């Protein structure tokens, strides 16, 4: 990568020109991020002294700019011994030259008049990085600031102030003949994808070995904003860390998918201005099919929300039960596009695909139908020959012989064919009806025994899933007849925190009716409950229900 710090240092030390340099780059490329997080530190090391960073956002006059310079040099470093000594010496000198004994008071009130002039005059041998000058509307103000910096740079040979202007010369809107007199040199900040990776690689740990893949994504998506990339890397690292210690998983395949899909999200969201819904449900049919052929994480809205800035608990984004396992050719086949597979991986994956469909008895419900659909996709696109035993009209017969299981975190089906999608959803309905009753019976029994110790209160299984609506009014009356004061209090606390997650109103729409019924039930119980601990806790629960209604209704 280009050594910007050395270039700037050499220009600052060159006596042939004023030590004022422009560091120019197009808007959105991440100049400020690079300067604040990398270049400033490098310049401090080169010059062995502090570097002052100033943003001109909000500056409306040359006096504002002078105030900013004074405060940066003298007032914002009051805890620095050297600066404190310098300030004390300066105050003594000011009092000696202009008279009066209220100098400190004048500084605090704004360093007006002669005091500020004297303080400016005594700024020497400082390094300033000045950002955002192109954002100022007033052309004459921009020229005045540049002129003031030129004056401050014309000190004795060993006391020159040095200025680095971080800007976009194309949008500065000052004639070139003027800027050529001010800037000794213009350094263009136009990092390559490789440069961007080098700048940010220190924030990578788990994904550091994916240099080539990340550089390819930066290049192909034209995603060059350093701040966006930094956020993307941090979130990718945090997500991957959730399962990086599970060595049964095919971590390499998962890394590739997280990188590819997170970059797609960032490109669609930050560059193409797509909404999360538009990202997860592309209008282009070919694009939709391509996402579903490979197990793309873009089909999961929690994944998209996480990478576009919403709070989503990393533990709830990916279904760990359905992530690809190491040494499983079928998983590699399902999670990667065909061009990423070797001939061996492909042929072994096809063999396992047919075995999973035809011979395995205990299978994951969603995965089974995705395999059936993927088999037809591969046939229709010439990858494999048709197997008459796995034609669409045979799928129901095969499915009836299976013992299905399903994971609690059920994300979108990767089925673009409506026939397979409808067939799968019909079996999901049957599966849920059978398993839901058993699940609800167990949950109700544990709630009746002790809400304080049940899975609803102490576990995470139902954190994102509507479940309160699954119990009848009779069930709830039974619970309140059996619950202790502790159970009532815990249930109130549970409700106060249940709807704090993102998009609660949409996610828990089905629970609104149950909350309304429980509010009426508690009002009813309060009318007959004698004064005491239980009545107080019923009042607490009532407030929790009112809070829940407010969240779900507004």
Blueprint (SSEs and pairs):
Blueprint: H1 4-13, E1 20-24, H2 31-47, E2 51-55, H3 62-75, H4 81-98, H5 103-108, H6 113-121, E3 127-131, H7 139-153, E4 162-167, H8 169-172, H9 176-182, E5 185-188, H10 193-200, H11 211-221, H12 226-241, H13 251-271, H14 276-280, H15 285-293, H16 301-307, H17 329-335, H18 343-358, E6 362-364, H19 365-380, H20 395-400, E7 403-405, H21 418-449, H22 455-458, H23 473-482, H24 485-498, H25 504-507, H26 512-528, H27 533-553
Parallel strand pairs: 1-4, 1-5, 2-3, 3-4, 6-7
The CATH architecture designation of the largest domain is 3-Layer(aba) Sandwich
Largest sheet: 5 strands, parallel
Low-confidence stretches: 100-111
- Range of strand content: 5-15%
- What CATH calls the topology of the largest domain is Rossmann fold
Which outline best applies?
flat
Which superfamily, in CATH terms, is the homologous superfamily of the largest domain?
P-loop containing nucleotide triphosphate hydrolases
- Structural domains: how many: 3
Structural class computed from helices and strand pairing: mainly alpha
Classified by CATH, the class of the largest domain is Alpha Beta
The beta-strand count equals 7
Overall pLDDT: 86
Query: How is the quaternary structure best described?
Result: single chain
What is the distance, rounded to the nearest whole angstrom, between the alpha carbons of the first and last residues? 52 Å
Helical fraction equals 55-70%
Query: Which radius of gyration do the C-alpha atoms yield?
Result: 33 Å
Per DSSP, the total helix count is 27
Instruction: Record the strand order, biggest sheet.
Output: 2-3-4-1-5
């Amino acid at each position: 990568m280009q050594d910007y710090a050395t270039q700037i240092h050499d220009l600052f030390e060159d006596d042939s020109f004023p030590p004022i340099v422009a560091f120019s780059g197009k808007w959105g490329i991440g100049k400020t991020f690079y300067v604040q997080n990398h270049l400033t530190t490098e310049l401090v090391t080169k010059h062995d002294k502090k570097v002052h960073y100033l943003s001109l956002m909000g500056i409306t006059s040359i006096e504002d700019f002078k105030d900013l310079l004074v405060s940066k040099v003298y007032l914002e470093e009051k805890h620095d011994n050297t600066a404190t000594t310098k300030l004390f010496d300066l105050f003594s000198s000011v009092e000696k030259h202009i008279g009066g004994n209220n100098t400190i008071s004048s500084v605090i009130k704004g360093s007006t008049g002669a005091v500020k002039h004297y303080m400016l005059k005594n700024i020497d041998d400082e390094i300033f990085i000045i950002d955002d000058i192109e954002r100022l509307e007033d052309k004459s103000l921009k020229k005045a600031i540049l002129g003031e910096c030129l004056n401050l740079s014309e000190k004795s040979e060993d006391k020159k102030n040095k200025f680095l202007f971080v800007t976009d010369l194309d949008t500065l809107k000052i004639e070139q003949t003027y800027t050529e007199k001010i800037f000794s040199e213009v350094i263009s900040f136009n990092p390559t994808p490789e440069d961007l990776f080098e700048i940010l690689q220190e924030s990578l740990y788990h994904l550091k070995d994916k240099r080539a893949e990340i550089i390819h994504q930066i290049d192909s998506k034209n995603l060059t904003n350093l701040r966006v990339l930094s956020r993307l890397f941090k979130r990718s690292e945090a997500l991957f860390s959730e399962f990086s210690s599970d060595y049964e998983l095919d971590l390499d395949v998962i890394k590739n998918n997280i990188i590819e899909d997170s970059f797609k999200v960032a490109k669609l969201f930050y560059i193409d201005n797509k909404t999360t819904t538009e990202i997860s449900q592309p209008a282009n049919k070919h694009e939709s099919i391509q996402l579903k052929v490979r197990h793309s994480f873009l089909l999961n809205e929690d994944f998209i929300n996480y990478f576009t800035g919403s709070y989503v608990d990393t533990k709830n984004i990916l279904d760990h039960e359905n992530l690809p396992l190491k040494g499983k050719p079928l998983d590699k086949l399902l999670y990667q596009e065909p061009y990423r597979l070797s001939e061996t991986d492909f042929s072994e994956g096809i063999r396992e695909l047919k075995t999973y469909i035809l011979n395995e008895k205990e299978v994951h419900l969603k995965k089974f139908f995705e395999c059936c659909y993927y088999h037809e996709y591969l046939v229709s696109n010439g990858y494999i020959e048709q197997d008459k035993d796995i034609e669409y009209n045979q799928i129901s017969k095969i499915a009836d012989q299976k013992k299905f299981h399903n994971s609690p975190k059920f994300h979108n089906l990767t089925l673009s064919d409506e026939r397979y999608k409808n067939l799968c959803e019909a079996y999901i309905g049957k599966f849920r009806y059978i398993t839901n009753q058993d699940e609800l019976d167990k949950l109700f029994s544990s709630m009746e025994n002790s809400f304080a110790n049940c899975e609803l209160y102490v576990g995470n299984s139902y954190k994102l899933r509507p479940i309160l609506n699954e119990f009848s009014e009779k069930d709830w009356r039974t619970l309140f007849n059996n619950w202790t004061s502790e159970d009532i209090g815990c249930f109130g606390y549970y409700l106060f925190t249940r709807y704090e997650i993102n998009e609660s109103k949409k996610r828990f729409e089905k629970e609104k009716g149950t909350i309304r019924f429980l509010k009426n039930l508690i009002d009813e119980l309060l009318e007959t409950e004698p004064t005491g601990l239980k009545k107080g806790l019923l009042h607490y629960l009532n407030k929790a229900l009112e809070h829940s209604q407010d969240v779900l209704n507004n």
